[in-house]
Amino acid sequence: MASPLLSSPALLSMIRHKPELISPSQATPHELKPLSDLDDQEGLHFRFPFLFFYPNSPPIGGREDPVRVVKEALGKALVYYYPQYQRIREGPNGKLVVDCTAEGILFVEADADISLEELGDSVRPPCGFVDEVLCDVAGSGGIIGCPLLLVQVTRLKCGGFILGIRVSHAISDTFGLRQFLKAAAELARGAHAPPRLPVWQREILCARDPPRATCRHPEFEDVIDDARSAPMTLDTKNMVHRSLPHHLVSKSSTYEVLTACLWKCHTIALEIDPDDVVRLTCVINARGQRGLGVPPGYYGNTSVYATVLSKAGHLCSSPLGYAVELVKKAKEMVSEEYVRSSIDVLVLKGRPKYTTVWNFLVADATKVGFEEADFGWGKPAYGSVAGALPLISFYVKNRTRKGEEGIVVPIMLPERVMRRFLEELAKMTDEGTAGDDDYGEDSTMIRSCL
C-alpha cells in the first residue's frame, strides 16, 4: 500500500537551525539591474516553491555533509548569478529593478528524524509537509526588499537530504532556476566554472517603443480573485480518450490530450452557465522562438500566456476532439509577434495579473530537466514544483515504484467541485479511480495507447 501522506509536524520531527544569509565566495558588482517587462508583471510577484529529494548515495571520496556541500556550491554559483542574492526595489511607474548591494540569500539548515524510504509516495505533490521543508521566515513575504532565494537543506536519517527552495518568480522561471541549480551542482562536483555562463540582458524582453498590441490577449481581461481550495494530485500515464478521432490520436501530443481532458472535466465540474465563456490559458515557453534573440544562458522569464475561449455549454457537450483542437490553437498562437504583443500589452495595461474568471491555467514542467541537479548524491528521487498553486496547475514528471514513467498533475478545487471533477474524469478515461496501490486514494490513472 502507498505510504500515508505526512501532513503534521508530529509525523515529521524537525529540528531547524537559525537562518543565515549566504553571499558569493568572491566580490561581485554593486549596480542596478532592471528586470524585463515580462519579469515584473503582477502575476509573477510571488515565491515559487520547489522540492528535491535526494537518496543516500554519498559522493565519490566518502560521506559528505549535504548542508556543507550545498551551501558552498551556492556560494560559488552566486559569483556568476550575483543578481540572485540581491534585493528587488520598485522604481518609477512601478518598474522593478534588482539593487545589487550584496545582502545575501536566506539559508536554513535542518534535520529530520525520518528516511526517504519512510516518506514513500508523500514526496510527490501534494506534499503534506511543505511548511516543514521550505523555509519562509517572518518578514520574508513578498518580493520587494526581501531575499530572492530562500533555501533549506534538511538532512534525513538515511543519509539523504531534502533541498527546499522558494525563488522569486520575478527573477527567474523554472528553466532559469534549473540552470542556476545545475551550475551549483556542477561546482559542487568539482567543476571550475558553470557549464553555461549566465546571461542577464533583460532588455531583450521589454516592450517596444511605442508599445502596440497587435494580437488579442483575453488572459488580461476581467480580472477577479479565485478562492483558495484543497489540493489533489492526478497520476497520469500517456493518455487518450476512447472517442478521440483517429486523426487526432496520431497527431496529438500527450500534453494536448491531457490538457483538453482536464479542461473539459474542470468546466463540467464547476457547473458553469452554458452561455458563459470559459478560458484555457497555456503557459508557453518562448525561449526557442525565432526572432526574439534570447541567448543561451538567459535565466529570466520567457513564458507568455496563450488563451483560447469557448462557450461552457459547447465545450461540455462536444467530443473531446473539440477541446484538443483548441489546445493546439493555443500553442500555435505563440509566434515572435505574439510574444512582443504580450509584452506590449503588459506595459499598456500597467503590468496586470492574468484573469482568473472561469480560467483553467496550466504550465508544463515535464521537460525542464530538474533531474540534472546532481550535487554528488545522484539524481533526485523527485525534483520539481512542490505542488499546485491556487490559480495554476503544473504537469511534472513522475516515476512509480514499479519504474513506470508518468505525469503528476497537482490541482486545487473546492471539495465538492473536486468530487464532480473526478467523476467526470472517470467517465472520460479508460479507467476510473485507480486501485493500484502505487497510488493514493486521491489519484486517478489516465491510460492510453499513445
From TrEMBL:
<dbReference type="GO" id="GO:0016740">
    <property type="term" value="F:transferase activity"/>
</dbReference>
<dbReference type="InterPro" id="IPR050898">
    <property type="entry name" value="Plant_acyltransferase"/>
</dbReference>
<dbReference type="InterPro" id="IPR023213">
    <property type="entry name" value="CAT-like_dom_sf"/>
</dbReference>
<comment type="similarity">
    <text>Belongs to the plant acyltransferase family.</text>
</comment>
<dbReference type="Pfam" id="PF02458">
    <property type="entry name" value="Transferase"/>
</dbReference>
<protein>
    <recommendedName>
        <fullName>Benzyl alcohol O-benzoyltransferase</fullName>
    </recommendedName>
</protein>
<keyword id="KW-0808">Transferase</keyword>
